[in-house]
Amino acid sequence: MVTALYFALAALTALYGAIFLRSSEGARPSFLHTLIGFATNFLDTLGIGSFATTTAIFKFAAMVPDRLIPGTLNAGHTLPTAFQAFIYLTAIEVDARTLVLLIAGAVAGAWFGAAAVSGLSRRTVQLCVGGALLIAAAALLMRQFELFPAGGAALGLDGWKLVAAVAGNILLGAVSTLGIGFYAPCMTMVSLLGMNPAVAFPIMMGSSAFLMPVASAQFVRRKAYSAPVALGLTLGGLAGVPLAAFVVKSLPLAGLRWLVIIAVFYAAVLTLRSGEQK
Q1: Is the pTM of this model over 0.85?
Q2: pLDDT tens-digit profile of 96-120?
Q3: Which of 2, 38, 69, 252 is deepest in the core (most CB within 10 A)?
Q4: Cα 112 vs. chain centroid, distance in angstroms?
Q5: 49-78: b or e for each residue (b if 16 or more CB lie within 10 Å)?
């Protein structure tokens, strides 16, 4: 089953890569775009996350129009996220049926979510992105103070818990296209349903790796993203992921998380104020 997932992920990633590169033909990312991709995906691999930090940088630097932020995040971070999945997907044992069904739910949610988000007005996107940043800041605070549910010992789910988890992943897949990180809410959900939090990792990683190409293809097809910035995120991220995974492996991140929390919260306020003024 896991081998089949690898083949499916490889095929999906290759298909998205071809669509993305063809759509981005002629785009010229700057050194700064590439550096942002390197830094955010380096930190994502170590556990900080990439969506909230990248959005905060976009806001501070006025780099991407607000309406294009969700599409640029998804399009630019897809291939580095898939790279992480290939590295970590089999690192922890998990029930195969639970893993596959939750991934399928996340992909379905992302397909419809991306189609909806790419057609939203600028003001609506600003309010949604601002709200997403507040949620991200809250999740980072919960992680900083170790407030996530303790979870149980289960390696998989059955019955109503499995149905609830799939439904939850459909919702999370849909809202993740706005720039809300998938990891923290997914870990919270499966922990509340009694799964071992460690087992949540392949579910989170697998779901993100599969849903992002599906969502990103929608943004790319509708031209609802900044091609130069997204290409820079991709190129830098593909260098940052292996450095973090194979060379650095771990860093003392507690202090850095506080800086990220402050930056993300401030960016959320700026974005929400912009939305209210339109």
Answers
A1: yes
A2: 899 999 999 999 999 999 988 888 8
A3: 69
A4: 16
A5: bbbbbbbbbbbeeebbebbbbbbbbbbbbb
